[in-house]
Write the structure tokens for this entry.
Amino acid sequence: MSLTQIPRLIATEIGATPAQVTSAVELLDGGATVPFIARYRKEVTGGLDDTQLRKLEERLGYLRELETRRGAIVGSITEQGKMTDALAKSIAGAVTKAELEDIYLPYKPKRRTKAMIAREAGLQGLVDAILADRGADPVALAGGFLSEGFADTKAALEGARDILAEGLSEDASLLGRLRDHMRKAGKLAARVVAGKEAAGAKFSDYFAHSEEFSRVPSHRALAMFRGRNEDALTLDLEIDAEAPRGESPAERACGAAVGAGGQGAGDKWLREAAAWAWRVKLKTSLTLDLMAELREGAEAEAIRVFARNLKDLLLAAPAGGKATMGLDPGIRTGVKVAVVDATGKLVATDTVYPFQPKNDLKGAQVAIARLIGSHGVKLIAIGNGTASRETEKLVADLLALLPGPEKPVKVVVSEAGASVYSASELAAREFPGLDVSLRGAVSIARRLQDPLAELVKIEPKAIGVGQYQHDVDQHRLAKSLDAVVEDAVNGVGVDLNTASAPLLARVSGVGPGLAEAIVAHRDQNGPFGTRKDLLKVARLGPKAFEQAAGFLRISGGKEPLDASSVHPEAYDVARKIVAACGRDIRALMGDGAALKNLNPASFVDDRFGLPTVKDILAELEKPGRDPRPSFKTATFTEGVEEITDLKPGMVLEGTVTNVAAFGAFVDIGVHQDGLVHVSQLSDSFVKDPHAVVKAGDVVKVRVVEVDVPRKRIGLTMKSDGGASAKDQARERGAAPSKPVRGPMQSGPQSGGNAFSDALKGKFGR
């Protein structure tokens, strides 16, 4: 593969054409962002969406690294004077880094090995002699190769075996077949470490566990890897465990690789040496490779699930610009209270102590009621942590006492990450004189008003919608989550005159430095009148303006189109559309009836094609539309506040907090999320839980089982109430085994002189 072949390969993977990929690569290399390309360069890429572009970007990086490594390997082998046409062809044909490294292994500089020492002592001659005469007794042959360090025939044969084993371990073709066989036929086996039963109790499902390696789902793989890292479990890749010694497909493949198919004494020794090489060297090294491969795949899936959940959370319905009270529940330390106005500005704070030890319930209610009345509070956001249900009941009782029909609406919201934000440098700059504990209440209030605007201030990992996020590659995780945040922010759009620096930093082409510069310019000069005024910001040049302008909104500005997602570069097209309607632009925006009579094709020109024109028409019809759903909240059942209050059969309302490969977690108001197993999500078969629910959804569930000691709650969304959890297949259960087809294709089973000569070349130096 070469750099010129990369577009063709990526095109196949993302369902596009090589020309589309080439165009997208040129834009990315030119500094364009994925959101910008997906939204404003549809004509150039043929309409590649953000998902395709993200995958393209990731694969492009991998394949370019692969080509760089390929070039380095070619250079190294050429410098050694060992490059051949066949080797060059093999290197050129490698499509993964693992395959490339297998080919390079015999030529890779290495520290002094047992095989090297044996060769230095002349034992390559013994290997050649055994290969050449299979009828001769290897012990007798060894007698002619004794030397210092190899003083007897046993030592000499062990040295010859080391040479043979090293040759097998550097045979790229053999390694490929063995690795494939292990993937298909291997079983991942987990066992408890003796004496760690109590300390590792949370891994008890894996104390005596075995399942097909090829079918291990990511969440179980990561659970077992964590158990191993915590010294509670041992992991092994079992392969051909029931095959007689020397007769397993892997051992036969190694024997075939040295042409040991005959019945002579030499053939027997070669088969035994090859089997030893498999057991002692190849199986160990390949197991390590495949475990790393399994972990990498599991991490990739965990990151994908985390990213998807994060996207759902970021794009959750905003309650909107209403005066909101945030309550950060606590018992001994009190309930922290913060009130923000419709714009999110902090206007009041307090701390009340309705619970032990003060038990000032009446005083707390009076203080909260006073703040509601003083600031016209319409929403009350209650954090879902410790004392959440107690605080919710306090508020419910208070609301029942308030006069008038229009009372504030209480909502329980996730407070995940609020404490992280509270102690951050950003929070300190935003609220320099405010106690850390009260900053959390502000965050809780604001994330109800606009989840996206508030959650961008928190490190994505701290938001709490992933599994095993601390176990995966942190660089890959951060890169993936940052991409999700970027796509979410740009998908919704940002108000240029009200957005915080952290929110602006996520806008296409902006970043933290320019975001701070935009806010500083706004503070010094007042609100931006037009998008073009952005060019007055220090260090914000034409390129950054091109990338960012379409995603920034100005409401009520001089230019009506600045309130829309129409890019300034296409304003002339929008004005032609307006002129065709014979209406004032402000009157036309939002009038779908007038726009539906237009033919989009009539506005296409050399620069802007049909996709852009259709986007402009859609935006004029619904200017500045928010893609997020309408606001809805769950109502927790009164009297159900602790896990001990739950009984099988109860029907409850809750909010989906997390979606994993094996099901969905639902907050039902008892401080412990319940699990709706994938088998209980629907009356019909569900392959992907995310196809049924997403984070933030309000759902009705029925309690199936309650395990108080382990704090596990089994829920169902089936119409029949679901089966007992004991009757379900355990979440960790392996799929039924499939028979592995016959032995591997491993080449000739007998070794003639021609094959022996080839082997001399392979194992010789």
About this structure: The domain at 114-308 is CATH 1.10.3500.10 (Tex N-terminal region-like). Residues 724-765 have pLDDT under 50 and may be disordered. The longest strand covers residues 651-660. The chain has 30 helices and 15 strands.
